[in-house]
Amino acid sequence: MLCDRCHKEEALIHIRGVDAQGNVHTISICAGCAMKSIMSEELSPSDLTELLKSGSLPKPDVMMKLIDNFMRRGEDSEEQEAEARACPNCGLQRDELRRDLLLGCPDCLDCFDAEVRSHLNLKEDFVYTAPEQAESSQETRHEAQKEQAAFRSLNSRLQAAVQAEEYEVAATLKEELESRLREINRLRQVGSESDWGAREIEDQLALPRQTQNNLPWLPKRRDEQGLVRLSSLLFGNYNLSGFELPPFAKNLEQGAEVSALLAAFLRREPIFGEYREYVPAEMEKSARLELTERGWCPQEFVQRKHATRLFVSENERVIALLNDIDHLRVNFWGEAEELPIMLRHLQDFSKNLSSTFDLLSHAKFGRVSRHLNSLGSAMSLGQLMHLPALNYDGRIEALVRACRDMHFNLRPLFRKNEQSGASLYILQSSDSLLPPEQYIERFLELSRSIARNELLCRQVFQSYKENRLIITDNIGRAVGTLRGASLLSFEEAEYLLSTLWLGVEMEMLPWLDIRKILAKLTELLTLPANIVDQQSNFNDRIQVRRELAASFKKDLLGMEEE
Predict the structure, then answer these.
(1) How far apart are CA 550 and CA 486, in angstroms?
(2) Per-residue burial over 54-71, b = 16 or more CB atoms within 10 Å of its CB, e = otherwise
(3) What distance in Å separates the CA atoms of residue 159 and residue 147, rounded to the nearest whole number?
(4) CA pair distance 350, 345, nearest whole angstrom
(5) What is 188-208+217-455's CATH number?
(6) How many angstroms separate the CA atoms of 10 and 31, rounded?
(7) Stated pTM of the model
(8) What is d(CA 544, CA 527) in angstroms, rounded to the nearest whole number?
(9) Is residue 249 within 8 Å of residue 243, measured between CB atoms?
C-alpha cells in the first residue's frame, strides 16, 4: 500500500480512528512522511515510537491530531494546486477563466481541458468531427496556402511602398491585389441567388419619414402567423491559421495586416452588394456610438483598440465584424422561413473564404474561439419570438423544458429580464458544435409549433369571457401605468411595449399603430448605447427614467409633457 500523503513510498504506519462527528478514517503513511511530521511538530518521537510498537494503538489526542492535520493538508494542497494552475503559454489563471469565461490562447484548451469539458457538458470520449466539405483534399488546402502567401506578400509590398511614399508603385500593387480577388470571384461562378445582402427589402413596419429603419432583427413585414416569429439569425465564426490574431496576441501591427487582407476579401464578396465599411478606431466618438444604436455591433466591439472593421450590406441583412472576439463574425438576418436560404448563402461564403485563406480547425473543439460559450462553433442559428399570450397563461416554463428535451434552448432576449414579465424570447440550438444543416428542419418545425400555440392561446383569451377579462385587464393596466408614469425603468418599458403590442394584435387598441411600438422598441433596445458614456450616479439614472417616460407617453399616447 502506498503512502496516503506522498503516494510514492510503501506505507509502514497505519492509523484508524473516529473523528468528533463519528466518521471512521484510515491513514497510512511511510517512514519519510512520518519523519516530516516529527520535524513539523505534528508528531513527537515518543508518539512515533508508540505507533511502531506491534499491536499498540495511538493515543486519542495523537490520532486526532494526525487525522485532522492530514485531511487539512490534503485538501489545502489540492486546492492550492488547482487554483495555482495557469496556462504555460499566456499565463491565464484558472480563476480568471471561471470569472470571464475567456481563453487566453489556443493552449488554454489543453491546460484547462477539464474545466472546458465541464462547461460544455462534453463526455470524456467526445471528439469534434467537422462537417464534410466538397473541397477538402490536400491539393485544395495547398492551393489555399499558396493563395494566402500571395496575399500576404502583395500586402506587405503595398504597405512598404506606402511608407516609402512610392505611391505609383502602391497603386499598381493595389490594382494587382484587387485583380487577383476579381479573378477568384469570377472563377467561383457565383449564381444569381448570391445577392442576399443586396436584395431590396421594404420595411413595411417602419414609420413614414423615420430617420432609420428598425433594428436588423425586428420584423419588416407580417407573415401568415402574425408577428410571433419576428426574425431569424444565422452566424458564422471564423479564425485564420498562420496569424497571431487578436485577442489571442497583442501584436497590433500584425492585426492590422490581417484586417487589411480580410477587408480586401470582404469588399469583393457579392453577398454584401453595395456595402458600407467602417473603421471604428478612426471614427469620432459620436459616430462610433451610432454604429451600436443601429444594432450593427455591440458596444465593446467599437471600443477595442485592435484593427477592427465593420461591413454592412446594402440592405443591412448581412453584417461582418472583422477581428471581433472570434476574429471574423458574419451575421445573416432574415424572416422566419428564410433560414434554409440563409444557410446556403453562409455555406457559400464559408467555401469562398476557405478557398482564399487557410482556416484552422482545432482537433477537439472545431474552429478556435476565445469565449467559452462560443467554443467550437463554426455556424449557429436562432429565432426571435414574441410570446406574450403563452407568458400570461403561465406556459413558458413548460415550453422551456419541452425545448430542452428536444436539444433546443428557449431563453429571454435579455437574460436579466427573465423575471420581469417581458415576452421576447430567443429559440436556439443547445449544441453549439452541431452543424445547422443537421437540425434546421427540426428547428423550423419547433418554431412553427410554438407560433401555432401562441396564436391558439390568443384565440382562447378572446373566445372565453373570463380569459378575455384577464387579458383586457392586463392591457388596460399597461395603458394606465404608462399614462400616469413619471419614471420608467428599462425593464418596465420593455414589459409595457410587449403588453401594448399584444393589445394591438388582438385588436383591443385600434387607436395604436404597431409601427409606433416597433419604433419605440428600437429606441429602447439601443438605450444602453445612448447612455453608456453618462455617469451612473443617482441623478443621471433618474433623469434617464424621466425622459424615457415622457418619450413613451408622447409617442404612444400623444400626451405632451406638462
Answers:
(1) 7
(2) eeeebeeebbbbbbeebe
(3) 18
(4) 9
(5) 3.30.590.10
(6) 8
(7) 0.66
(8) 9
(9) no
Kindly report, residue by residue over 247-278, the tens digit of the pLDDT.
Answer: 555 566 666 777 777 888 888 888 888 889 99
DSSP string, 432-498: TTS-GGGTHHHHHHHHHHHHHHHHHHHHHHHHSHHHHHHHHHHHHHHHHHHHH-S---HHHHHHHHH
First to last CA, the chain: 85
- Cα–Cα distance for residue pair 478/552, rounded to 1 Å: 12
- Cell numbers that stand for 135 in this block: 473541397
**Domain residue spans in the chain?**
1-38, 90-126, 188-208+217-455, 464-557
Q: Which residue has the cell 430617420?
A: 211
H or E element that contains 45: helix 45-52
Could you write out the DSSP letters of every residue in 247-284? TT---HHHHHHHHHHHHHHHHT-GGGSS-EEE-GGGS-
Q: Are strands 276-278 and 408-412 parallel, antiparallel or unpaired?
A: unpaired
DSSP for residue 102: B
Worst-scoring range by mean pLDDT, 17-21, 45-49, 504-508? 45-49
Winning range, highest mean pLDDT, from 15-24, 53-62, 250-259, 544-553: 544-553
Distance CA 413, CA 498 (A): 12
Measure the CA dihedral 455/457/458/461, to 10°: 160
Distance CA 487, CA 4 (A): 65
